[in-house]
Give the backbone structure.
Amino acid sequence: MSAIEQEPTIIVGAGWAGLTAALALSRQGKKIIVLEAAPQAGGRARKIFFGEDIVDNGQHLLLGAYHNILTALKWLGIPEQSILHRTPLELWITDPSMPLHPFYIQTLKFSSRLRLLNGLLKLKGLTWQERFKMAQFFHVIQKNRFQFNLEADVSIKELLVSFNQPSTLITKLWAPIAVAALSTPIHEASAQVFLQILKDTFCKDQGNSDLLFPKTDLSELLPNPILKYLAHNNGSIFYTQRVKSLIIEDEQCKGICTETKQFRGKNIILATPPHVSAQLLLQSKVSNYCKPLIENLLKFQYQPITTVYLRYKTPIEFEIPMIGFINSTIHWVFDRRLTGHPNILSVVITGDDVHLSLEHSQLITKITTEINAAFPKFKQTPLEYRIIREKRAAFSCHVGVNHYRPNNTTSIPRLWLAGDYTQTYYPATLEGAVQSGMQVAQLMQQL
């Protein structure tokens, strides 16, 4: 490790992208200052309280393909098994109106015809025609005939229709997976980004398709360990410091101004959402030099996500910890027993729908009715609930989004960008955020 530089790198935003950039740069011997507008770190993946329990401000799903997150844990000396529960991919997707006919899938290995046949035999809830069509699609992906680059991006639905995927299979399998992966409806979501997820999850290492369930809250998974590392390695974080403007001198970015202080540094990283970064650039003296970047940042749209926590009197004990819903208000339900909450369910609803206009009590009645219909033996009434509605929970990963996702570099010397929305080719995920933080640190090291 090199000697500590005296002039700091200033990182605006203590979400997962900003904190990962801070960790990577600190490992290079850089002095780090992190500025966060909120009173705590973690961004959209941090702990909150639900009664006496600690949960998260949004339910997140991790995969074995998320190698950048696993690398960050290694850097921090945290063994994966101490903080993540790894299980083979297992999906249960149900329709509350047809609870006796769920769709069930285990990890399928498509590297040989024998393994493919064995996997298809384990499927439940699909006709043999649906199994055959699904196998055909995966076979093309596995053999790389697609090359994973489309001449022109299309929606996931258009892609699947072009591969003759039955509408019933699209409803039962592809639509729930697309919403979980891209937080965007299947008729709007980018097929190019979806192919990237499928390639990384199913066409590389066998463990890439594993599900990784945190054994703790998300703050303890990565943000807090990074903060502890920075505290011991010449890093600082200042909370409730909302950035008001950039300090531009000699057409270079040399610092930032908050409402109360001025911070100067060798490099500035904006690890803020696209619309926030765009506003800061618009107000700067060099906005004319980065007009294309500002225009691209302002093109981003967002998807709302509602997370509902339900506490029950007794342990829930569903057959598997993650269950998808179709023809329902609900998209996914997580049994949080692996996180140490055996009597808590988290319900995830993605998108702008009529549920957003419901009063809290109405929404709770609706989703508990659907849960009880899907699992007739369950029949429990929650003791209490907490609803978290995030209007800008994720950037909308719609068709063509990769065309205007920015790089980590900007046309303003010493100013950089980090965030899941940058050119990682991933959707709005924690893995994309961490990857972006690592990318910007690597680019800065090359200077």
About this structure: The CA atoms of residues 13 and 272 lie 6 Å apart. The chain has three domains: 9-58+65-76+222-300+404-445, 79-101+210-215+302-395, 108-209.
